[in-house]
Description:
The protein is built from 3 helices and 3 strands, in the order αβαβαβ. Helix 3 (100-120) links the parallel strand 2 (82-87) and strand 3. It has a domain at 31-133: NAD(P)-binding Rossmann-like Domain (Rossmann fold). By secondary structure, the chain is mainly alpha-helical. InterPro entries: NAD(P)-bd_dom_sf, Sc_DH/Rdtase_CS, SDR_fam, SDR_family_member_7C.
Amino acid sequence: TYAPKLVLLDISDINCIHDVAMEILNCYGCVDILINNASMKVKGAVQSISLELDKKIMDANYFGPITLTKAILPNMISRRTGQIVLINSIQGKIGIPFRAAYAASKHAAVGFFDCLRAEMEEFDISVSTVNPTFICSYHRQPAPGNWEASIWK
């Protein structure tokens, strides 16, 4: 039995993910189950959302989970066991108005993890994607001109 260890990670900060994954592997030696359950979304018309914000959403919802998965994956492959879960969204299957960046990032994640599932079968690593319907998320009311505060986390 291992004592719990709290490891903080900003999934949208791609540059720190590998170091955090190595910290976890160094502490425990392996990861049996990786559950990717972080997300960020914004509501707005395509023309009103900046490319900078589109990239931030993609970093958090696509590049973050795949970067963390790729950091943990070699350990699972070498042990020939493990489970990887992506908690995604129904918007990874369908798009709705005013959620283009979010839906695009969730579609990309579904595509990646669907391919990963097929590739990991030979290593006995299970890859699952969960696409729940709409849920109530934490939201901060934005200050005028502060787009980052309009992000749902």
